[in-house]
Hints:
The protein is α/β, with parallel strands linked by helices. It contains six helices and seven strands.
Amino acid sequence: MSPDDAYLSYYDVRLTKEDVDTLKNDWLTDNCIAFWEEYLERDRLTQYPQSNIVLLRPSMSFMLMQTPDPLTLKEALPNFSSTTHIFLPINDCRNVEVPEGGSHWSLLLVSLLDGLAFHYDSLMPSNFQEAQVVADKIGQLLGRSLHFQNVDGPQQQNSSDCGVFVCVQMKHLLLKKILRAVAEEKVGMSMAGIDIDASRGRKKMLRIIEDFRKEGEKRRSYVSPRHSPPWIL
């Protein structure tokens, strides 16, 4: 397969072979993080139908950071009127002309319940400015100011694991913190003391992708020629 060939189509995300290859030992692409968010939404959040949590895709977070007036994006963004939390992957790319630009990922978690913006950076304080800009833009969209906090958390040991840290922390904060909280209960959002095994995280994500790919291949093999859907040419 060539790098641009489709490896897996999962709802709104199309992963290429290049995307999947980065999961093995490289800096994660936007698509990899978008896939992880789609997976958490479809596989995990559906088990909590009363939740109102938004996992904003990397492309939308980047657009939010680059747009001078965030109110012009209101129609393109989800309706946050009943949202309790927003997860935003933050990229340090400043050049809108460069696809898949930037060199570092971090995670911004906005709690609309108490007006707080938590920033998790595995290479502190690399994305401090970018995350603060996005938090300010979200505040403008919501018509309220947000209190920004850099949160202590695990730090990466190389230059390529930042995207994996974002994905692992997103899952932990979503499943172990927010969704487990009892109504009106205060939840500590620190990641201090949490160990992240980036290699294990990569393998887990790759295994999920491979499982979905095998499932898709099985479904195609079960469709008999007589009952196969029509080709659209």
